[in-house]
Design brief:
Elements lengths: L6 E5 L1 E2 L1 H16 L15 E7 L7 E9 L3 E7 L21 E5 L7 E2 L1 H15 L4 E9 L7 E8 L1
Antiparallel strand pairs: 1-9, 2-3, 3-8, 4-9, 5-6, 5-8, 6-7
InterPro entries: Olfactory_marker, Olfactory_marker_sf
Organism: Indicator maculatus (spotted honeyguide)
Pfam families: Olfactory_mark
């Protein structure tokens, strides 16, 4: 996990099971012609659930995001603010962290760009939340032709 001494690079892992479960919730509501709970966040077709497992929880200092996009497009990374037990509770809009990290790659560009201030603040909030949890869930929204298979993402901390 650590490429260099003192660095902790934690990868984002696609949670296929949870993404599927959340899509079933959406389908179930549609089939029964029901409305979601007030404030409930339903997973859209371009959104997927990822997780980061913290092998170390304390004394983490956010350094940077390591986002690699194989093709041009945009990914929005939104964290969840509380312990989220997907089997027992639905994802509510109020559980989504602000700001989100928005990363994009333009056609012909080699580097991924982002809003540095938002990405920095978001990374620092993740480091704070790592102190109280071993796993954190993220909602990733892929747009402009980008697909999950074209993403490699990690968050890097100084441990």
């Amino acid at each position: 996990m650590a490429a260099e001494a003192g660095l902790l690079k934690l990868p984002f892992t696609h949670d296929d099971q949870l993404t599927c479960r959340m899509r079933l919730r959406f389908q179930s509501l549609q089939q029964r012609n029901l409305r979601p709970q007030d404030g409930e966040k339903l997973l859209q077709a371009h959104e997927h659930v990822y997780r980061v497992d913290f092998s170390q929880q304390h004394n983490l200092r956010f350094l940077h995001w390591d986002i690699q996009l194989e093709t041009p497009g945009k990914v929005t990374v939104t964290g969840t603010s509380q312990h989220w037990t997907p089997d027992l509770t639905h994802l509510m809009n109020r559980q989504l962290l602000e700001p989100a990290g928005i990363f994009w790659k333009k056609a012909g560009a080699r580097e991924v760009e982002c809003n540095e201030a938002d990405a920095q603040e978001f990374g620092e909030r993740v480091a704070e939340l790592a102190r109280i949890r071993k796993v954190m869930y993220f909602l990733l929204a892929f747009t402009d032709g980008l697909e999950p298979a074209q993403l490699k993402a990690s968050i890097v901390f100084k441990a």
